[in-house]
Amino acid sequence: MDKLKTFPWDAVLPSRADSKPFETAQADHAHLTGMLRLINPSETIETSAPPTRRSSPQEWSHLIERVRSAATRVREVETEAHEQELRVQDLLERVREDIANANERVKAAEAHTREIQARADALLKAADERVRAAEERARIAEEWLGRVYDTIASEFAFAQPEKRSA
Question: How far apart are the first and last CA of the chain?
Fold first, then answer.
């Protein structure tokens, strides 16, 4: 395969077409060791080769311990992720409650606004009625005042003395 067309994982995955069973086992083991290193990079990486079928029990015990350590770390990460998910769900629930409370307050404020507007409209209507009544009373009072004036003027009319010529 052309070097430009190879993918990064091609170097990690062994070619199985032309390998022998022992080489395949070693390649699988190398791949597993590489995966363990990816999972738990905090441990010190040994410079020695990974254990094989001929390795000592101590090397195998060390490998098993590394697998257990990696599994423990995976469980810890899963637990942390689950706890974080629970915290996020709790936060979302509180946000939903806050939104619901805010919507209720908005509805109450809108109802209060409508009530105030209705009262204001009623007060304006009553004030308009009082203004019309006052204007009508003023008009009637002016008519009566004019009649009283006309009556007084007609009843107490003085004859104008004639001018004498000298």
Answer: 151
Residue 156's pLDDT band, with cuts at 50, 70 and 90, is confident
pLDDT band at 8 (very low <50, low <70, confident <90, very high): very low
pTM: 0.43
Produce one character per residue of 118-130: b if its CB has 16 or more CB atoms within 10 Å, e if not: eeeeeeeeeeeee
Left (φ > 0), alpha (ψ -120 to 50) or beta: where does 157 sit? beta
Residue type, 33: T
Single-letter code of the amino acid located at 137 = R
Closest C-alpha among 76, 70, 79 to residue 40: 70
Question: Which segments of the chain does DSSP mark as H helices, in order?
Answer: 21-39, 57-155
Q: How far is CA 139 from CA 128, 130, 143, 144, in A?
A: 16, 14, 6, 9
Give the rounded percent of residues in the chain with a pLDDT score beyond 70: 63
Residues 6+ away with beta carbon under 8 Å from 34: 12
**Residue 154, token pair as written in the block:** 């007609």
What pLDDT is attached to residue 1? 47
In the structure encoding, which two tokens stand for residue 165, read together? 């010529």
How far is 40 from 63, CA to CA, in rounded Å? Answer: 12
Six-digit token pair at 2?
A: 């052309």
